[in-house]
Structures are given as structure tokens and as C-alpha cells.
């Protein structure tokens, strides 16, 4: 039945929840390791902040899952399906803000020609350059996220979950952050003072780009825009498919398709005469509130079956 989430999707969402809990665990260990190895490196600072921000998508995904399937209430008559959209907007906004700040910080370090220093530490009686510990921390910070990201991406595509896909994309691309950070550390070791700030700039630019792309998609969704692709602000092909099918079935009507979290809603309204006359609104809700009632959509039931469909009812499993 339409409106029921198939069991196969529910199972994949549960698997995604387990992976997100594992993500939080591994990211906490990475954040701790990176913090103690950070030193005065700008690239390490940017990588550490990115790792800290990586906690936000899994936390928001788990929070959204707690509310998404709750039944509708008098205050929320359409249910809580769009809580995922709100969480996606928050994650995108945080990424954008932090990416912009880190890019400014890296640019400032380059302009002021700040020369970072990496000293030595004594470990078991040995004098060790701190840069090697930073490189080891960066290598460790890459391995768990890349593995988890590759595991989460197929689940995100199948469940059409933008938060999960954003998280998986950030995880899978984490090797770029690690590589940039390592290049910055090695550059300092060779005396290239600007290598650290340049690496930090590359990391922050990557954060900012992801944030702006996701923010654009999230804003379109919350503005009742047509469903977007997971990976870009382009309109999803399902919009054209649904719209053309419904226009053929209801000639002379307009079709409006919008996104509701991972789900989509389609309204079929007459091309002409759907607008309310002002006097009708005044009669129904009064003079003062009449301007707020834009239209009334009637739910279509008992749709005629498309030609060639089997007579038996088919579920969405």
C-alpha cells in the first residue's frame, strides 16, 4: 500500500543506524588522537575541526530517525517526515559556516606569513619529531571513515536519505583531507612554511564546497521545491516520470511534485479554477484570515489502472 515503507527499506535504514553509531564511536577516537597530535599546525587544526564536524551528520541522522515515523498530531497534521530535511539543513549550514571560517583563517596565515614550528617529543627515551606523530594520526583518521563511507553510500542511495549520503560522501572523501594534511606537515619539515596554510586552505575549501552544495539542496527542499538528486541540486528524474503519468491520466490538470524528507508528494489540481475566490475564503474563515487561504487540494482516490496493469493489487515491497 502506498504510504507504507517497504520492509527492505526499513531493514536498510536499521543497518544505516548501526553504521552511524559505529561512525560516532570511531570519530570520537579519531578526534582524541588528532587533538593530542595537533601541535601548532594549521592543517592539523583544520583536519581536526573537520573530523569534529563529521559527528554532526550521523547524530542528526539518528535524531531524525527517532521522529520521522511518529504519527501525525493536531499540531503536525502532515506528520514528521520532513524532520530529515530540517536536519539536513542544519548539517549543511554548519559545514558552510565552518568551511568559510577555516578558509579565512588559512588565507590570513598565508597573508601574514605565519611560520608554524613543529618540535620534538621524547618517547621511551627517543627524540622523535612531532611531525611523524601528526602523519600517523592523519593516516589513522582516514582509514575508519573511508571504510564506513563506502558501506553507507549504497544504503543512502537505496533509502534516498540526504543526510546519510552527505555523511557517506564526507567519509569516503576523507582521504583527501588526510593527504592534504600530510603534505602540509611534510612541507614544514622541508622548510616550506606556506605548505601548512596551503593544505589547510585546501581542506577548508573542500568543506565549504560540500556545505554550499548541500545548503542549496536543503533550502530547495524546505521551500517545497521539486525533489532533487542526492548528489546535486538537479531535479530528480522521478518528477518528470510522475508528472507525465498523472497529466496523461488527468488531462487539463496541473501536477505539483514536492519532496517530504525521503518521500515525495504529488498534487493534482485543475489547470483553471483551482484558485479560491476571495468571497469564498471570507465566508469560510472570516475577513481577517481570508488572505492566508491560498488553495484547497482534494485528494484523488480510486485512480484508474494504467493500461496493461494486472488486475491484482500490488504492494510496494
UniProtKB/TrEMBL annotation:
It comes from Paracoccus homiensis. The chain crosses the membrane at residues 21-40, 46-64, 85-104, 129-148. This is Cation diffusion facilitator family transporter. Its main location: membrane. One of its GO terms (cellular component) is membrane. GO terms for molecular function: monoatomic cation transmembrane transporter activity. The keyword rRNA-binding does not apply. Keywords: Membrane, Transmembrane, Transmembrane helix, Transport. It is found in: Membrane. It is a multi-pass membrane protein. InterPro entries: Cation_efflux_TM (IPR058533), Cation_efflux_TMD_sf (IPR027469), CDF_Transporter (IPR050291). It comes from the Bacteria. Residues 26-223 form the Cation efflux protein transmembrane domain.
Amino acid at each position: 500500500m502506498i504510504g507504507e515503507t517497504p520492509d527492505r527499506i526499513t531493514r536498510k535504514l536499521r543497518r544505516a543506524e548501526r553504521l552511524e553509531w559505529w561512525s560516532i564511536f570511531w570519530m570520537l577516537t579519531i578526534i582524541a588522537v588528532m587533538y593530542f597530535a595537533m601541535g601548532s599546525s594549521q592543517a592539523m587544526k583544520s583536519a581536526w575541526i573537520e573530523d569534529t564536524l563529521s559527528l554532526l551528520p550521523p547524530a542528526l541522522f539518528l535524531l531524525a530517525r527517532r521522529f520521522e515515523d511518529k504519527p501525525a498530531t493536531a499540531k503536525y497534521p502532515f506528520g514528521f517526515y520532513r524532520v530529515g530535511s530540517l536536519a539536513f539543513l542544519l548539517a549543511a549550514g554548519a559545514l558552510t559556516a565552518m568551511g568559510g571560517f577555516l578558509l579565512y583563517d588559512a588565507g590570513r596565515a598565508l597573508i601574514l606569513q605565519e611560520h608554524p614550528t613543529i618540535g620534538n617529543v621524547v618517547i621511551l627515551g627517543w627524540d622523535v619529531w612531532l611531525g611523524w606523530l601528526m602523519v600517523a594520526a592523519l593516516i589513522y583518521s582516514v582509514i575508519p571513515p573511508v571504510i564506513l563511507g563506502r558501506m553507507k553510500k549504497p544504503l543512502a542511495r537505496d533509502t534516498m536519505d540526504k543526510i546519510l549520503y552527505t555523511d557517506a560522501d564526507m567519509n569516503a572523501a576523507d582521504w583527501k583531507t588526510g593527504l592534504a594534511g600530510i603534505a602540509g606537515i611534510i612541507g614544514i619539515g622541508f622548510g616550506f612554511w606556506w605548505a601548512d596554510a596551503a593544505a589547510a586552505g585546501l581542506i577548508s575549501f573542500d568543506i565549504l564546497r560540500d556545505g554550499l552544495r548541500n545548503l542549496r539542496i536543503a533550502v530547495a527542499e524546505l521551500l517545497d521545491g521539486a525533489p532533487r538528486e542526492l548528489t546535486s541540486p538537479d531535479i530528480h528524474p522521478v518528477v518528470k516520470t510522475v508528472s507525465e503519468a498523472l497529466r496523461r491520466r488527468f488531462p487539463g490538470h496541473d501536477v505539483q511534485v514536492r519532496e517530504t524528507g525521503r518521500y515525495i508528494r504529488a498534487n493534482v489540481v485543475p489547470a483553471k479554477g483551482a484558485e479560491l475566490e476571495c468571497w469564498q475564503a471570507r465566508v469560510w474563515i472570516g475577513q481577517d484570515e481570508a488572505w492566508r487561504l491560498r488553495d484547497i487540494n482534494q485528494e484523488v482516490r480510486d485512480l484508474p489502472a494504467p493500461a496493461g496493469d494486472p488486475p491484482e493489487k500490488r504492494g510496494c515491497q
